[in-house]
């Protein structure tokens, strides 16, 4: 299966290596790299684990990276690991890791909302990570909302999102007062929805028209 990607993503291999196999997690400061590997090895084959330490004292910052061999394994870890780990896809190594770690830590040490679900922020990810916390705050689900300046053709949109395995339905809705496009997409697993959102948010379809893809609440228990 070939997955469509935006022009800015670079080659498929680069994207897979840099952005789809490495996750960032919050851990107890007492964890060693072996402890981290032990907790996350059930989700797939781990290439390496690393714990972020204070450069001066050598003490753990309570943050770490886990790199898997396959994107599907990283997606499974994000979906199935305990919510206390706050697992997300890590920023590529060529971006400022210290800024990413600082924002991640400050965003995730705030007072928890009620329930298990992270608060949902409905804004598209157009801004930088520092200015927009959507990636941390949104609730992952199996359902996606797709918005476009141009109207959608049901068959074409279905074919595009069906490139990601597990598509259950594609419902194109039309607003009689505007010419914009809106659709609801649902997959059989949250892992498929995560991958579809990651690959197709910002994708130009048709060329020159960027798609906005965000998660929709699907009513499922966030602990599943």
From TrEMBL:
CDD domains linked to this entry: RRM2_RBM45, RRM3_RBM45
- Gene Ontology molecular function, alphabetical: RNA binding
Q: Species name for this entry?
A: Haliaeetus albicilla
User: Could you tell me the keywords of this UniProt record?
Assistant: RNA-binding
A Pfam family annotated for this UniProt entry:
RRM_1
Q: Which InterPro entries match?
A: Nucleotide-bd_a/b_plait_sf, RBD_domain_sf, RBM45_RRM2, RBM45_RRM3, RRM_dom, SLIRP/GR-RBP-like
Its domain of life reads: Eukaryota
Record domain RRM: where: 21-95
- Signal sequence segment: none
The protein's name: RBM45 protein
Checking Gene3D superfamilies in the record gives: 3.30.70.330
């Amino acid at each position: 299966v070939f997955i469509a990607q935006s022009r800015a993503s670079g080659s498929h291999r680069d994207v897979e290596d840099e952005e789809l196999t490495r996750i960032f997690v919050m851990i107890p400061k007492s964890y060693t790299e072996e402890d981290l590997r032990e907790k996350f090895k059930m989700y797939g084959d781990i290439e390496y684990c690393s714990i972020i330490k204070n450069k001066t004292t050598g003490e753990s910052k309570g943050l770490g990276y886990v790199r898997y061999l396959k994107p599907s394994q990283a997606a499974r870890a994000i979906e199935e690991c305990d919510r206390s780990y706050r697992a997300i896809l890590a920023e590529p190594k060529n971006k400022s890791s210290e800024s990413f770690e600082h924002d991640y830590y400050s965003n995730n040490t705030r007072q928890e909302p009620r329930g298990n679900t992270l608060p949902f922020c409905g804004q598209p990810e157009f801004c930088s990570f520092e200015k927009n916390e959507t990636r941390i705050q949104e609730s992952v689900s199996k359902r996606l909302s797709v918005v476009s300046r141009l109207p959608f053709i049901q068959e074409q949109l279905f074919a595009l999102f069906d490139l990601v395995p597990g598509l259950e339905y594609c419902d194109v809705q039309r607003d009689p007062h505007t010419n914009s496009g809106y659709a609801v997409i649902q997959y059989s697993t949250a892992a498929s929805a995560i991958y579809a959102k990651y690959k197709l948010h910002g994708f130009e379809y048709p060329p020159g028209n960027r798609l906005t893809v965000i998660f929709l609440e699907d009513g499922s228990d966030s602990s599943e």
